[in-house]
Amino acid sequence: MDLSRVGIIGGSWGGYMAVRALVLAPESYHVAIATLPVADLYDLGVGGLEGYMDLIERNPEGYEYGSSLRLIEKLRGKLLIVSGTSDVNATFSATMRLVDALTRAGKEYDLKVVPELNHGLAPIKDYFLRTIRDYFVRNLRPE
Fold this sequence. Notes:
The protein is α/β, with parallel strands linked by helices. Helices cover about 35% and strands about 15% of the residues.
């Protein structure tokens, strides 16, 4: 395995983990594709965390620790974000907060926005498979 060319892909919470990989282990992960990701645990669309993390009001430190937005400065690799405008789980507004944080930090990123896409890639499966293949080939190819 060539450890200088490692990529990761994830969707939904896996998209969260793909972003986290780039910001928490930038020496290990060089390219990430985050589909339908959550980047900030304060996002109203994430729901269901209270059973694991308690209410935001009672665990603000935990929610802050889980936010990738506070770590964006550490990002060094290539990042492709795929987001749907009609996603009720990982909201488009959450994607825009991630994009805003990346832009303000001067970080390069790629963004694919799919109008009317909800929380699933089945409607764009063929397009998406081509996109991930091409992104990894283009960005992990040996120099």
